[in-house]
Amino acid sequence: MNYHQYYQTDVINGPGTRATLFVSGCEHQCRGCYNQSTWNPCSGHLFDEQMQQRIIDDLNDNRIKRRGLSLSGGDPLFPANVAAILALVKQVIEQCPAKDIWLWTGYRLEELSAEQQAVVDLVNVVVDGKFEQELADPSLVFRGSSNQTIHYLR
Ligand code: SF4
Question: CATH assignment of 2-152?
Answer without folding.
Answer: 3.20.20.70
